Structures are given as C-alpha cells and as structure tokens.
Amino acid sequence: MNDMTQFNDTAPIYLQIMDTIKRRLISEELKPGQQLPSVRQTAEDMRVNPNTVIRSYAELEREGIAEKRRGMGTFITENKAVIENVRNEVSHNLVSDFVSGMNECGFSAADIIALVQKHIENRTECKQENV
Amino acid sequence: MNDMTQFNDTAPIYLQIMDTIKRRLISEELKPGQQLPSVRQTAEDMRVNPNTVIRSYAELEREGIAEKRRGMGTFITENKAVIENVRNEVSHNLVSDFVSGMNECGFSAADIIALVQKHIENRTECKQENV
Amino acid sequence: MNDMTQFNDTAPIYLQIMDTIKRRLISEELKPGQQLPSVRQTAEDMRVNPNTVIRSYAELEREGIAEKRRGMGTFITENKAVIENVRNEVSHNLVSDFVSGMNECGFSAADIIALVQKHIENRTECKQENV
Amino acid sequence: MNDMTQFNDTAPIYLQIMDTIKRRLISEELKPGQQLPSVRQTAEDMRVNPNTVIRSYAELEREGIAEKRRGMGTFITENKAVIENVRNEVSHNLVSDFVSGMNECGFSAADIIALVQKHIENRTECKQENV
DNA sequence: GTGGTCTAGACCACA
DNA sequence: GTGGTCTAGACCACT
Description:
- By secondary structure, chain A is mostly helical.
- Chain A is about 65% helix and about 5% strand.
- In chain A, strands 1-2 form a two-stranded antiparallel ribbon.
- At the A-B interface, α4 and α5 of A face α4 and α5 of B.
- Chain B binds a DNA duplex through α3.
C-alpha cells in the first residue's frame, strides 16, 4: 500500500521530509513567505502518514523555518536570517557527511582537500570549454 | 510484503547493492579473496529478489571486483589493483556529489574549499582535546 | 505455449540470439546504424520472453555492437572496426568448431586441410561449369 | 510436455537423430555389431515420438548402417566399409557447412585455408606447451 | 511507442 | 548447497 521508496531507513522519515524542504528553500524552489502544500497533500504526495508530515511541519516551526497560521496553512518564514542559518546547517551536514565518507575510504585531510580542489578545477575547465 | 526500506528509488537497487559492497570493500569489512554471502542469503537479508542480487554480483564480476565460481559461491577478487580503483571510483563519486550539493546550496568553489578546511581543522582540534 | 524450436539447449538462448544478430551483421543483412526490431517484437517473433531479448541486447551493447537509445530503440553501432571484430570472432568460432568436429571424426591436421582444399576446388569447378 | 530442446528446426528431427548416431559411430562410442537402444528407450531419452525414431532406424538400415533383427532389436552393421563411408559423409558435411559459413562471412578460399592452417598450428603449439 | 527494473517462481548445471 | 537461465507479468522513465 505504502511505498515510501524515496526514503531510506537510516534516519526518521520526518527528518528526511524536513531536509527535503530545507533543500528546496536553499535552492530557492521555496521562497520566504511562500505557502507549503497542505499536510494532507504532502502526505499523499510522499505516500506517508499525515501524522509524520505534521511532525515535520511542527519541527520546522520550532526551528523558526515555518509558521503555522490557523485556518490558512503553513508558510515559510519571512525572516531571511533564519534561511541563512538553514543554508549553513545543510551545508555543514554536507561537509560533515562528505568528510566522514572520505575518511572511511582511507583519505587523509590533505587528500580530501586536494581531491576537492582538483575536482573543482576540472569542472571549471569543462565549463570554459563549453563557452 | 517487501520493505526494502534501506533503499531509495533514485537509483536501481542492483546498483545500490553494488555500492554497498564496494564501500564494505574499501572499509576492509570485506577483504580480497573473501566469500560474499550467497545470492539467496543476500536476497533474504536485503528483502530483495534473488535475481536482483544475481545482477549485482554479475556486474561486480564484470567490473573485476568479484569472481563467481559455479557451485562454490562468489568471492572478492584477490587483485588489489582493482580494489584501489574501487577506492578511487567511490571517492570520486563522493567528491562529485558533495560539490554538486554545495553548488545547489549556492556556495562558490572558494567557499566549498574553505568550509572543508574549516571542518577538518575543527575535527582535528576535537580529537586533540579528547587526547 | 512456447516452442522455441529454433533454439537448442546446448547454449543459453540469449547467446543464440546474439549469435543470430552477429551473423546477420556479417552477412550485411543488418547494416551499421540500422535499428534492430524492438525488444517486444523480437520476443514475439522468436517466441521468447522479452527479458531474454533485453539481456541479448544488453550484452550486444556491452560488446560495442549495439547501442540502446531510451525511448528510441536499439541500433547497430556505426563503428565499422567493431563489426570487423565480430567477423573475426564468428569466423574463429566456425574454424574452431569445425576442427574439433573433424578431430572427433578421427581426421589429422593434414587430412583436414586436404579435405577443405579439395572441397573448395570442387566448388570452384562447379561454378565454372555453371558459367 | 515435449521439449525436444536439443533439436533445432532447420532439419527434420529424424535426420538429426541419424546424425547423432552416425557421429557416435565415427567416434567409436558405438561399435560394429553393437545393439542400439530400443526405439521406445530412445524415444523416451530424446523426448521424441517413437515413430520418429522408427523412421531414423529405418533410414539407417536403408543406408546399410544398421540392421534390424526381428525380436532382437537394431544393431550397427559389422561391415567396416560402410562405417568408413559414414565417416566420409559426415566429414564432407562438416567441411561443406564450414566452407559455406565462412563464405557468408566474406572469406575467400585462400582466407579459409589460411585460417584453418593457422588454427591447427596454434592448437599444436598449445599441446606441446602442455607436454 | 521505446527500453529498464523488479518480482515471483520455475528448472538446470556444477560441486 | 552454489550460481545460471528463463518465463510471466508488473510498473517506471523517456520520446
């Protein structure tokens, strides 16, 4: 009945929903003041129990990212400082997970930085070639 | 019937199984010459169809990472050069995904490298404090 | 329900399908860049399961002989060097099977070559007579 | 019910059964004077209709290869000249099919002989290495 | 329409 | 036991 195949079991689903929303916010797919889809709609879209969505929205509100307005729905905050914090939090998680993964692969700090630099340089060259 | 909650739907399951094995190989949880769990066992453990596991093992063999021996089982190759390649492949994917993610968050190349460096320094300090 | 009388059980069907296509390619019944019949069509024609055809096409792609284009179909490669290799592979198999068969019949190397030469000479004479 | 998967549809089954017996005769798996398995046994073994086997045995008798003895069964002839003829017939078919196949692959008479010679030389070297 | 993935379950070959 | 092949049929992504 319920797939949830877009989620993994390494983290609670409500955290994964929060993360999805945070990333949409950072990438400006969601903008300050914008209304989030209804709990029911999201639950249906993500094939998840509405209670799970409610919990995600509540946590987002607790973190100051969303605001519930009775009878209106849930909205992204207008407070851009908060959004900036989200950006830092998400990026911190990205960095953290990345460095952990590289360490597990046996790479030293110096290796990691060198590989990132090399990768970015290659990407830049590719873009220039395309120009 | 079938959960598969450890998988997401962004990539084929057989690729995710391959990736899992590659990471176990890099972290030396799996060692050269070691026997992999049987197709049926893996299928049961991962709650996945045996055919899907067979495909993963077949692809691993094609990449030179595993060797199948009829009636004997499937084994990690003894060839350490291949394992080194796996390490490079996996780390390249980690770097690539990381940089893409950071770019989506709006970070420049310089930002990314600075954040990685800062993160590594902090980790190092933490470790020193623990000592 | 299913005949498959055009196949024997000494080799997997997917290999026999591959071989059929390779021979058609060599005899120029199939030409570089040409579209192969769809998986479903071939499966129906050969009275075989689509998965078996998919496997054949996948292997042909892996050998560089075919190229799959999502939603478009499967095509013979334009690369003529690859086709030349196919020609060599198929002819090598023909020679190998032939010599094995003759050995089983108790013919020596010298016998085999003599018989081939004699056969070719006779054929040539036949053709000349027909002219 | 009936597989017959060891046969293909390019030639009548009774001819294929005859060919199988001829090859066994040449390779001395069957010897002059030896009794062939009963029609019923062969039909069961090959998963073929008994009438098909009867036809094969009748044709073998017509060619002088087998002899039916009422109430006794079917036997390979004692006449070694006949066996020699079988050897020539089978080898002729092998040569003929081989040369046709090579021609379809686009090889000239000279190519064919050269490839056979090369293949035999390589095989000989392999054997010598093993010694 | 194309090919891609997966499941369920069958039967086979090898050891 | 092991892996190998095949079928029947489902659902998905791309064009």
